[in-house]
Amino acid sequence: MSSNRPSTVEKLLTALDCMLVDGFAIQDKTLLEKLLTSLQDADVLLKTIPVTTHCKWFANVLNIYRHQTPVSRNASIHLYAFALKYLAILVKHDDGFVTLIKTGTVQSMINQLDVGSDLKESSIFNAYMSLLQTLNTHKRGLEYVFQEGLWKIILVAIRGLIVPAKYVEIQSSQYIADLIYKSFVYEMAHYCDPLLKELFYNLNLTDNLIANHQGIKEFFAYNIYVKTLILSLEKFIGTKYESNVVQNIINKYSLSDVLVNILRLLNVNSILLKNYMTLHLIFDCFTVWHHSDMEYVLKSIFSHMNKQKDIHSYKKINNLYTQAIIYANISNAQLAANTIFEKELIIGQLIPLNKCTDWLHCSNYENLKYDRSFINESKYILNYCNNYDFIINELAISSILNIVDIVHVLKQVSLDYLINFFSTLTEHFLNSDEWLEPNQDRDSIYYKFLEILSYIFICWSKVIECKSFTEIAIQDPLLVPLVQSHRQFFHRSSHNSTLLQNGLKLISTSLNKISKENIQCTDHLADFSTLCTTLNNLLLDTRPEIRDSCLQCIRSIVNASKYSSGNFLIKLVLEKNMSIAVINTLKHDNDPFVRSKALECLEEMVSVSDIWEISLKDSDLIVSVY
């Protein structure tokens, strides 16, 4: 060895030579991983090592691996796995790859692999995947993978599940997806034809599964193919290659045929619906990869979703409703402009147990009428509560929170629907006498619906914040039915603290958001009077968070009174002595945060001249300040 060679290289070569010594073993395997990590960015150093030195070392590794004994087997496996990962580092640039191809080193290391035995070892499988993933990073490596058909080993691993571990499924699917995507990036999509043909062949090979539909292992393997397909397609979402994918994959290999086969499998075994990726594929087909010949089968697949009785399956489906809306708004111009599609997904989110075919119509969008009875839809949720099934409450809450997450991207027509839906739902419940009956059982509609109602208030507030109100839109003001529906409800101070807080925030949000110039509430003085009385009473509540929320609501009322249509609110504030109640709170409340909120509320009152002149100007508190 040359004496001019850097000491670091000498240490590396010594370490590599030590690995070849018979009986060599290292107790801490993480040291080898640390060595590999340190070499990832050591290109300059590695280039100082002659190619012949590397070739000789790899040849020695292969010789040891081929002549392993039962005693040396474990050590030889770890040596071979390390060598594959080291080779991946050396070929990550095309010049190093070309050099080691010419020497036959790459071919020898890969050809040694036996699918039936070597890949059963997790360390070798991981190392081989590392090598293949590295070859995906440059065009020459990608060409070699396709020319030699190296991807076939991965598909065989999927088909035979030769390594019964989750990482095989994950790494295999991700690798194939990346390989297909890179072929488009490097303008080599035609190289993918054999791979895609094999993948779709396995996806359409369902006759045996249908005949032996109890074989969970076979369905598991099919799930992996579905996952591979969806990961491959999702790589292209939002990229410039979308149209090419439609032509070269979706249409060429008939994705709709795959959906038909999924439907056939669902008819004999619903296990596919428990696979998140299967559901993802279905929704992506209806949003990003929308095509007319898929509509019928999609509609049929959706009809299976109401059969699930597992809370996790329901939640997966409902999560996909919201994801489908996001995809449609981001990735598909046609569906982004289709307000009906989004609204129907919202309906599906809110009524998860209704048959999906009742809310998701896959054809003739423009001919459908969606002015359905909101009361009927509201009764669905009330009926859920009647089922005395915890899954319904949990699912309803999950669905509502899903909507909260996407309110900001919803179209105005969807927001209108949600406002009407929530309004009718709560009116139907709160204006009935059923929930007022004393001594109700904890399993009654009353208690079950209250659990959901708090989350409805949260979502409703978000919707109002995002809604654009116009003069035409509020001819039937939202605020009046809100106050009418909730005035009696809020009067029950025994309600859960969070429930009251969220309800008060809803009233406050509606007062702050809606155009005050257009509020025409003079015919509903009694309703607002009851609300003001309730707020005065809640200022005496023992819970500081309720007093805080109450003050925020009073402040919103005072702010709304500043507008020309808000004179009646000034009269109510004066009539109910609300300013005195706020002053007393500021003076005597034992919570500093509540006193701070009372001060803010009082400042708002002072800014309204009538309230100032009539109620505040001569008060003891104001006089003491001056």
Automatic annotation (TrEMBL):
<dbReference type="GO" id="GO:0005634">
    <property type="term" value="C:nucleus"/>
</dbReference>
<dbReference type="InterPro" id="IPR016024">
    <property type="entry name" value="ARM-type_fold"/>
</dbReference>
<dbReference type="GO" id="GO:0005737">
    <property type="term" value="C:cytoplasm"/>
</dbReference>
<protein>
    <submittedName>
        <fullName>Uncharacterized protein</fullName>
    </submittedName>
</protein>
<dbReference type="GO" id="GO:0006974">
    <property type="term" value="P:DNA damage response"/>
</dbReference>
<comment type="similarity">
    <text>Belongs to the BRAT1 family.</text>
</comment>
<keyword id="KW-0963">Cytoplasm</keyword>
<dbReference type="InterPro" id="IPR011989">
    <property type="entry name" value="ARM-like"/>
</dbReference>
<dbReference type="InterPro" id="IPR038904">
    <property type="entry name" value="BRAT1"/>
</dbReference>
<dbReference type="GO" id="GO:0008283">
    <property type="term" value="P:cell population proliferation"/>
</dbReference>
